Amino acid sequence: MNYIARASDEPVGGQQKKGSEVESFSGEQMLRIWVFAMIAVGLVAGIATGYFKARKIQPNGFKWKRFGVEALVAAFTLGVSGVVLGGLNTYLVKHGWIAFKTETPAFWQIAFEYALYFVLFDTWFYWLHRLMHIEPFYAWIHKLHHKSTSPNMLTTLSETPFEAFINGGFVPLFLTVFTVHDATAALILPTNIVMGVYVHSGYEFFPRWWNKSWATKWFITATFHDQHHRYFTGNFGGYTTVWDRLCGTMRPKFEADFDKLKARTATARTASADA
Fold it and tell me: Which of 129, 137, 196, 235 could form a Cys-Cys staple with 156, CB 3.0–4.6 A?
């Protein structure tokens, strides 16, 4: 007799647990295992084939000692900010400051609400980021994050709690001011996580034509933010290059450096194919 058949017949907590519920739970667990397995396989394959090595922005930039320090800082800040921001969000929801539209939205409604969040967060991030580069705010808030001159994915969380409150505080503020559909809200957190991890990854995955196309050059790349960490100034944008272009804070050599990196990637790929 298989696990699901047995579990569906056994009482749990004094109640009969339905087979469909157990099947759903088991299926969800299997999906998670499959996703993590695919990610693990992808990482191993990327390392073994040199895919990641060819796309490393600063080839000799990674330092294990720095990585260890960032792990400790990230754990502390994540714990503090998680409690504070999580508590704030719970309070705002409980008292009705944050509420969601639950009716089924049209696609254009989700697109509009998401675009509103995207543009406003990018504006919030750019101007407060520039402010954090002015003393004494830099020393108090932002300097710790810039200890990593060659960022990695963990650098995303390696910051002071104050900086975490500034960046993470925008979402509850946005959801308090604007009532959006729950489907839109479900897109916001993944966007924050994916963008934060990607721009700090230290690897450039976007194609060579990215900065040459009018449609895509407005969105930042890992190289864009990597140069901010490497040179400390310029390239302040969080999601886009729009404010940097308008205010003249984009590094003049960014697009040329991006092209050189992609040329190096192409050369490594060709050499690997010929080997």
Answer: 196
